[in-house]
Write a structure and sequence with these properties.
The chain has 149 residues and is mostly helical. It contains eight helices and no strands.
Length: 149
Amino acid sequence: MAVFTIRAFVHRQVEFASILAAHPSITRWRYFRLMALAMTDLLLTMPLAIFVMWLNATATPMQPWRSWNDTHFQYSRVIQYPGLIWRRNARLVASMEFTRWVVPICALVFFGLAEEATRNYVSLADKIQKKLKLRTQVKHRSILMLSSL
């Protein structure tokens, strides 16, 4: 999917300018942030997916395939293991924790630190400050300057 997005962008730069002119809510910065996300997806997803598959394949022993009946036996049963047991296997822990945290971290990096998001954070902090009637000085510029890095 990311390859097609990047390819379409390269081949249609003239159309891109007309799209930006027609839709004022789409800014160049937002579009390039989307392109950066697509590039990151392209460059990291395959190697990371291969790594996670290797972790999953080596973390627990493979069971031989016998039949479809054996494969689907008690298919809806969910076995729960205490963390004390599954955390003993370092590869399994790495695989589970990686897949748990990679999506929120990428979302934060690409969208949570953008200029518009930091503006919303500052606005929310102001509203909370007014509700609580706090008299602290917030350095709005330092927060917004962080997002432009």
